[in-house]
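Hi P.,

Sorry for the delay on this. The queue was packed all week, but I finally got your sequence through. Input first:
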Amino acid sequence: MAQSINLDIPDSIVQQAQQLASQSQQRIEDVLVERLTHSFTEHPVETLPDSQILALCNMQLDEQQQETLNTLTEKQREDDLTPADSQELQFLMGLYRRGLLRKAKALKIAVERGLLPPLSAA
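Then the structure:
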């Protein structure tokens, strides 16, 4: 179930959301909902316990997601994406980017906490 809420959103945020929506061929409303959902469902990396930090350091897309991403990027190179393919590709790329960012933060924190050696020392 979803609810409609009217919000006054700063112009700078609207501009960023419009740019993302345009780039991903999504509605601005979908971009904003995705960002809100993400901000409320993922705990900040810094607050995670050591075991979850280490798990994030090794995180990857699952095999099916990676295979689909590879297939869709190949179709994109061939300029053969359907609108549905494009939407799925944008979703997977967003998932990949967010995961990569969280993984990088987790690696930094793991080194700071002494859970992993610095990359330069490896």
